Amino acid sequence: MEVLPCLARGGDGNGDEGGDRPPVVFLHGFIGNRSVFALLRRSLAGHGRRHLESLNYSLLTCDIRAAAGLLGRHVEEICARTGHQEVDIVGHGLGGLIARYYVQRLGGDRRVRTLVTLGTPHGGTAVARPASAHPLVRQMRAGSAPIEELRAPAPGCRTRFVSFWSDLDRVIVPAEAGRIDHPDLDVLNVRVTGIGHLALPVHPRVAAAIREALERGRPTTGAAEAEEEETESTKPTRPGATGAETTGGKPTRPKTPGPETTGSETTGSDGTAPAP
Question: What confidence tens digit (pLDDT) does each residue in 178-202 have?
Fold first, then answer.
């Protein structure tokens, strides 16, 4: 008997009333549940976010595509209930991959304003053989059908992507696979230093950087020990933009002035760190 994936809305939404900013939808990783976003929920609620939704998917989920379809139906329900036309999504690990599939392959870009991913294997990850017995884990491997589908052209995609990846992530192998590299997408890749995979959604510095990414479009340099990677593009920067180069063929927002980042190096325009 085929087991369908299950996404269930957590009973911790903040009600239907108030607030002009889009609802934020949290989608946990393969080894986790909505509780991993408790710190981030408090941070966002403390800064005026009134619509916070947590979605759980069952470990019986066997297909990223089907899970993305169910996510889409829940997003429609959230929009209908709150009266908003768009949502923001924060996905950890596999949750980010499900959300990206929904946005990029199922037309979710008309509903998702910003997708923030944390330690998501956008380029696929090398996994230990015992773990690869689970169908979802196999779909997260480099070269899997869903990963390859996300490499397909996505002209006109309206969602903005912010991908946090850590140099200390031992789940995403290689760690750089947590970056989004796609010429059609509006992407900001943010490297976090010294924080492991499971700690990404619960670390205070990362929580602050996520909040700023949702509020301002990009984290300030002093919000976390993170570096913003600006890769060289074949297209010119947007007129009037300063301090930023286009990423993935689309213009990024100008850098917000802030104190110099500690604990990380600044990348050059080709995305590589300078020699020490």
Answer: 999 999 999 999 999 999 999 999 9
pTM: 0.76
pLDDT of 99-121, one tens digit each?
Answer: 999 999 999 999 999 999 999 99
For the beta carbon of residue 263, count every other beta carbon within 10 angstroms: 13
Would you say 209 and 216 are in contact if contact means Cβ atoms under 8 Å apart? no
Place of tokens 């369908």: 4
Do residues 126 and 173 make contact, with C-beta atoms less than 8 angstroms apart?
yes
Dmax (CA) for the chain in angstroms is 58
| Tally of CB atoms within 10 A around 48 | 11
Tell me the two tokens of residue 126.
Answer: 């090398």
Q: b/e per residue, 155-184, with b = 16+ CB within 10 A?
A: eebebbbbbbbbeebebbbebbbbbbbbee
Both tokens assigned to 268:
């050059």
Residue by residue, DSSP assigns the chain as -PPPP-EEE-TT---S---SSPPEEEE--SS--GGGGHHHHHHHHHTT---EEEEEE-TT---HHHHHHHHHHHHHHHHHHH--S-EEEEEETHHHHHHHHHHHHSSGGGTEEEEEEES--TT-----TTGGGSHHHHHTSTT-HHHHHTTS--TT---EEEEEEETT-SSSSSGGGGS---TTSEEEEEEE-S--TTTTTT-HHHHHHHHHHHHHSS--TTSSSEEEE-B--SSPPPTT--S---BTTBPPPPPPP-PPPSSSPPP-TBS-PPP-
